Amino acid sequence: MFELGVAAAWLDKERVIIICEDRQDEARLFDINPARQVDYVRSPRGFVELQAKLGKLIQDGVARAPFEKAPKTELTLPISLDLTREEDGGSLWGPSGAHRRIIRDTGLEFGSLYNFRYGWMSVGDLIARNLTVSGEFRFSSPRQGTPYPPWIGIMLRSQGYHASSGHLAVLRANGEVAFTQEGEGGHTDIDIGKLKDFDPHAPGFVPLEVMIDEQIWEIRIGSIAKRVLIRDLPLVYSEGRVILEGQFCWMCLRNLQAKLP
C-alpha cells in the first residue's frame, strides 16, 4: 500500500493501475476498489489474458499521451477558420513529427504518409459534447500499395487518435464513406455509401459536415449522408476533442467551422 500511496500522490488516481492476483483463498487486506485494477490468475492462460489486458492499457495510454501537454489555444464557439492563410493554422494543434504547411489560397495540408501516430490534428484544446463541425477536405499524396485504402476523416468526442477512441467518420481513397462503431474489444467499420467516380488525386475538395447531440450522430461527406441514433450505438463517449486525421496520406483542409447544434 506504500507504493500505491506514493503513486497516487504523484499522479491522478485515474492514471494509477494496480495489478492483483485473483486468489479466492486469500482475502485482500485493503479496499482498493476506488482505484483502477487489473486482476489475473496465476496460470498459463491467466498470464496470456494479463498480457492482452496490459497491452490494451498501454495502447490507450500512448494514444492519449499527446493531449496531456497540448498547448493552450483560446477557442470559443462558434469557430470559423479559413485555413488558406498562415494566421488561421495556429488554432489547430498536432504532433511535431507530422508534415504541416499552409498552401496559399488552397488550405492546410498535414499528416503522415507512413506513421499513423503523426497523421492527426486537434481543433485546439476544444473539448465538447454536442457539436456541429463542417468544412472541406481532400486527399493529398495518397500512397500506393497500402494494406487497405488510404483514408481521411473527422472524429468527435475523441479521447485519442485511434479509431476506437471516439466517433469517427471517414472517406476512403476508393470513394467509400464509413463510420466507426466502438465496442469494448475495439471498433468496427460500418460502410454507408460510395461517392460516384471519386478520384483521390483530383484537386477538388469534398464537403463534410458531422453533428452529434443527445439523440443522433449525423454524417454528411459529399453526397453520402447517414443519421445514426445514439441509442443504437454500443458505446457512446460523453465528450472529447475534435480530431481530423488520416492514414497513408496527407490531408488538405479548409473552411473549418464549429458551432453548437
What does this structure look like?
The strands form 3 sheets. Strands 3, 5, 6, 8, 13, 14, 15 and 17 form an 8-stranded antiparallel sheet that branches. Strands 4-7-16-9-10-11-12 form a 7-stranded antiparallel sheet, with no helix packed on it. Strands 1-2 form a two-stranded parallel ribbon. By secondary structure, it is mainly beta. It has helices spanning 2-10, 44-64, 86-89; strands at 17-21, 36-40, 79-81, 92-93, 99-103, 107-112, 120-128, 131-140, 151-158, 167-172, 176-183, 186-194, 206-212, 216-221, 224-229, 240-247, 249-259. It contains 3 helices and 17 strands. The protein folds into 2 domains: 2-67, no CATH class; 73-259, Sandwich (Jelly Rolls), CATH 2.60.120.560.
Mean pLDDT: 86
CATH level 1 class label of the largest domain: Mainly Beta
The outline comes out as globular
CATH architecture classification of the largest domain: Sandwich
Element pattern in H and E: HEEHEHEEEEEEEEEEEEEE
| Biggest pleated sheet | 8 strands, antiparallel
- Helix percentage: 10-25%
> Could you tell me how far the N terminus lies from the C terminus, measured between alpha carbons in angstroms?
47 Å
Beta content comes to 35-45%
Number of strands: 17
Total of helices: 3
Give Rg in angstroms. 21 Å
The CATH homologous superfamily of the largest domain corresponds to: Exo-inulinase, domain 1
Low-confidence stretches: none
Structural class: mainly beta
Write down the domain tally: 2
Quaternary: single chain
Might you state the CATH topology name of the largest domain?
Jelly Rolls
